[in-house]
Write a structure and sequence with these properties.
Largest sheet: 7 strands, mixed
Number of helices: 14
CATH topology of the largest domain: Rossmann fold
Number of strands: 13
Distance between the termini: 16 Å
Radius of gyration: 21 Å
CATH superfamily of the largest domain: Response regulator
CATH class of the largest domain: Alpha Beta
Structural class: alpha/beta
CATH architecture of the largest domain: 3-Layer(aba) Sandwich
Strand content: 15-25%
Order of helices and strands: HEHEHEHEHEHEHHEHEHEHEHEHEEH
Strand order of the largest sheet: 1-12-6-5-4-2-3
Length: 372
């Protein structure tokens, strides 16, 4: 079974990098994730999560094949969410849900479109909703209408703010969020650069890390935290930073390519590091870097997040400095398991968290073997 194969791969290949696996956590995440060096020095045994111990997955009560699941994805064209929704659907089916009773809708990156889809799911009386919101700021409105309809709600990937999550707890609503702490992904991006050493990154010799930042959706908490904590990790390592350029690429490869081309045209060889909030934008950045005849690993450095297959291949061949594995297996499985818990009446914590994994050339092949 794919679940068992994944568990074996995680336990063998990722033991040196995975912090503590994935599991339910009701507490808020730490303000700054533990440094990656601590991972390497004291590798943890793989946690017995739902993914690693199938017997721990919630036992189905009743006939799940009769249960209707509504899934809202913010945008089908997003590379990471394509991996996520495919794994989510497959895992739901493996738990006993009927494929014809799983409806997955494309929000087309438009909140009004997604809101209409949610309204239709409520009218259709689905048994549970799994929502990747177009705008995290819309979570309060979404929660209110779904809770009023008596439907359990699992948010995924895009985290509602703390005040919204506090409402779920105070009212004891059947609402939870499943995802990784974006602060950790940003920290890992910064550490990928800091670990290289100032003497290797500071190509213009000014004693600083001169960088450009390509952000995702500025309303998205993941984009906000990745932007903030990637730079903070450099500063925490004692490095002085100099931001040359910071623009929004909306998670899109083509937009990032244009932005990075503009930045390289404006700042030339002073650009030493390119931070991208996701791998799709990093791939666009790489196209621009190549067009300017710069060489990643020699005179410029490039990092992303998600560990898309193409990005991992670039890390292996040296055309990307590194990326961060956004574990869509754990997240999608935990979201499905949370849905089953609500249907069983056993409930969930209001936040279910996972760890990211820092990816360099040393472990990129192991991660690539998992995501292919």
């Amino acid at each position: 079974m794919k679940k068992k194969v994944l568990a074996a791969l995680l336990s063998v290949a990722m033991v040196a990098t995975l912090l503590a696996g994935c599991g339910s956590k009701s507490e808020e995440p730490a303000a700054a994730p533990a440094p990656a060096e601590e991972e390497a020095e004291a590798p943890a045994e793989p946690a017995e999560s739902e993914e690693e111990t199938p017997a721990d997955a919630p036992a189905a009560s009743g006939d799940l094949a009769d249960k209707k699941v509504g899934v809202c994805i913010y945008q089908f064209s997003d590379n990471f969410m394509t991996l996520f929704r495919t794994e989510l659907e497959n895992y739901l089916i493996s738990l006993g849900f009927a494929k014809e009773n799983i409806s997955i809708q494309d929000g087309q990156n438009d909140q009004a479109t997604q809101t209409n889809q949610i309204d239709n799911f409520i009218t259709d009386e689905v048994d549970v909703l799994i929502i990747n919101p177009v705008n995290s700021s819309s979570a309060e409105t979404i929660t209110d209408k779904v809770v009023a309809a008596g439907i359990p709600l699992v948010y995924i990937n895009r985290e509602p703010d703390e005040s919204e999550q506090k409402r779920w707890e105070e009212n004891n609503w059947d609402v939870t969020y499943v995802g990784c702490d974006a602060r950790q992904s940003g920290t890992f991006q910064g550490e990928l650069i800091a670990d290289l050493g100032l003497e290797n990154v500071d190509k213009n010799g000014n004693g600083k890390i001169d960088y450009i930042m390509i952000q995702g959706d500025p309303e998205n908490v993941d984009a906000q935290y990745r932007t903030e904590f990637s730079v903070k990790a450099l500063q925490d390592a004692g490095l002085e930073v100099n931001e040359l350029f910071n623009q929004v690429g909306n998670w899109q490869q083509a937009e990032a390519q244009t932005l990075v081309a503009n930045a390289l045209g404006q700042f030339g060889t002073d650009v030493e590091v390119v931070f991208c909030n996701n791998d799709a934008m990093a791939l666009g950045a790489l196209q621009a870097i190549n067009e300017k005849e710069r060489k990643v690993g020699e005179d410029i450095f490039l990092v992303g997040v998600d560990a898309l297959s193409e990005a991992l291949e670039n890390v292996l061949n040296g055309t990307m400095t590194g990326t961060v594995f956004n574990d869509h297996f754990s997240q999608s499985h935990n979201a499905a398991d949370a849905a089953v818990n609500y249907l069983n009446g056993t409930g969930n914590d209001h936040k279910i968290s996972c760890d990211y994994v820092k990816v360099t050339k040393d472990n990129a092949q192991e991660v690539l073997d998992m995501v292919k």
